[in-house]
Specification:
Number of strands: 4
Oligomer: single chain
Radius of gyration: 31 Å
Order of helices and strands: HEEHHEHE
Number of domains: 2
Structural class: alpha+beta
Strand content: 15-25%
Largest sheet: 2 strands, antiparallel
Shape: elongated
Strand order of the largest sheet: 1-2
């Protein structure tokens, strides 16, 4: 079960990368007027084949989904009818052939930008360094801390996220200087007065 929880996301992520990569080759080839004979996800014996489009392109899903390919009309692989010579890959200009070859990696690069942009917009979750007081009469409670108080910043860790402050303090050499964190206090419960600080 634990292996499947890693294997299934890996196969899905790899399949997405392969699909986007090959779509890059396919779309630019069509844009350049090159005839595409087969679009395959995976290698080996095809498990599923379907013909579609004006060129009757074969869309295939093969047994080993560790890659893929886009097969185009090419005189170097098979004879080409005279009426379709202008659509052969080897008859295209250097610039068009370069664009077709580079379209796959470029599509993956654009996919990475989109995914990172999505993570940036959606954000990520992290644990917050909140205080949990075991004893109401403890020193922390007497000092004014309450359950749920959150460490927002520290003079020793200026400019770092709150979750990084704990690690930064733990890594300081001994003896360390007193750490003065900035605390965000939750609202006190109704009808309960918040403890106040007493100075001698």
């Amino acid at each position: 079960m634990n292996l499947l929880s890693y294997l299934v996301p890996f196969v899905l992520a790899l399949g997405l990368l392969i699909l986007v990569h090959e779509l890059g080759h396919y779309l630019v080839a069509r844009w350049c007027g090159v005839k595409v004979l087969r679009f395959s996800i995976g290698f080996g014996k095809p498990l599923l084949v379907r013909r579609a489009g004006a060129d009757r392109t074969e869309w295939a899903l093969a047994a080993f989904p560790l890659g893929g390919y886009v097969k185009m009309l090419d005189e170097r692989e098979a004879p080409v009818a005279p009426a379709e010579l202008h659509r052969a890959f080897n008859r295209q200009s250097v610039y068009r052939r370069f664009a077709i070859v580079a379209a796959g990696p470029l599509a993956n690069f654009l996919l990475a930008i989109v995914l990172y942009w999505g993570l940036f917009v959606a954000g990520t979750e992290e644990l917050q360094p909140r205080v949990a007081l075991a004893q109401p009469s403890s020193i922390a409670a007497t000092a004014g801390l309450r359950d749920g108080a959150c460490t927002a910043a520290s003079e020793s860790c200026t400019g770092t996220p709150a979750s990084a402050n704990i690690c930064a303090v733990a890594d300081l050499p001994m003896p360390i200087e007193p750490v003065r964190p900035t605390m965000i206090m939750p609202a006190p419960p109704a009808n309960v007065a918040a403890p106040s600080r007493h100075r001698a």
